[in-house]
Each structure stands twice: as structure tokens, then as C-alpha cells.
């Protein structure tokens, strides 16, 4: 019959060293995980601040009559080689009646429907924007009138410089955009 041999007392000399080693491994892995999760967010913040901006000249302010809505087309100055025809875009410009403190008042909308982005058409007879894709309808002030769009038309930033109306481009509408704003 085979006898069990006593292995003797187990040495614990290296336990503190092993604990220290695993603690540092844990710190290192924690730091690595933080970097992996945090760097894209930091990159987003830095990238968002550096987003290019360009102003497009839409013509002389006096060329727009109060109460009139007009489509103005232009080539996006920040176009990419692969944009193709999509780089030729436009906005609807509506000049509002001047007030005492504000001689130049405009509503400028992206042509894209707030539903799935089809270009909307302006019908002066009815005073409505209509989307040919799914029947979305908007009032002259850009508010949603009916159909599937979840909101009104997307408003664009604009400014007047030296008697000329300028709009900021490119304008990629998102649902986070404000209803309307001006510079
Ligand atoms: S894209 Fe305009 S209603 Fe759907």
C-alpha cells in the first residue's frame, strides 16, 4: 500500500510580491480601458470644435422682397470629391417684413424634408411647402402642417455682410437642430 507523503509547509514568501504584481496589472488594465473608452469622446469634442464653417453669398439683400419665398441654389464650398451632384444644394429664402429694430429679417430653410430628406417644393399659390416623396406639408414659416415629418423644416444660420445675405454651409440637418435661429 502506497503511503501519502507530507508535502511539508507551503512557503508564502512570494505572496506579497504576487499581490503587488496583480495590483499593478489591475491598475494598468483599468487605465487602458479608460483610455479606450475616453479617447473617442475627447476626439469627438476636439473634432466638433474644429468643424469647418463657410459662408455662402446668396446675393444682395435688396434682391429679396418682403413676403416672398425663393429657392437659391449654390455649390457647397466644403464639398468632397465623392459628393457628386449632392454638392449642388440650395435653401429657401423668405424675407420677413422689417421691424423698427430689425430691418433685415429672413427665414432660411434647408430644402430637405424633415422626414427622410427629399427636396421639398414651394407652392406660392397655396403658401405651402410640399414634399413629393410621402406627402409632407409645411407652412410658409417652415412649421409642419401635415404628413409624416416629425417637425418643421430645418432652419439655417444666416447673416448680412456688406448688404449681402450669407448662409452658413454646409448645413446637414439633424433632429437636434433648433427650430430657427439667426446670427
Ligand atoms: S421625405 Fe418628405 S414626407 Fe417623407
What can you see in these coordinates?
This protein has 183 residues and is of the alpha+beta class. It folds into 2 domains: 14-51; 54-169, 3-layer Sandwich (Rieske Iron-sulfur Protein). Helix content is 19%, strand content 27%. The chain has 1 helix and 10 strands, in the order αββββββββββ. The strands form 3 sheets. The chain has a 4-stranded antiparallel beta sheet with strand order 5-6-7-8, with no helix packed on it. The longest helix is centred in the N-terminal third of the chain and has 35 residues, at 15-49. Mean pLDDT is 82; it is low at 179-183. The protein binds FE2/S2 (inorganic) cluster (FES). Residues 113, 115-116, 118, 131, 133-136, 147-149 line the site of FE2/S2 (inorganic) cluster.
Quick summary of this structure?
This protein is 19% helix and 27% strand. It is α+β, with helices and mostly antiparallel strands and 183 residues long.
So what's the CATH class of the largest domain?
Mainly Beta
Mean pLDDT: 82
Under CATH, the topology of the largest domain can be stated as Rieske Iron-sulfur Protein
Number of domains: 2
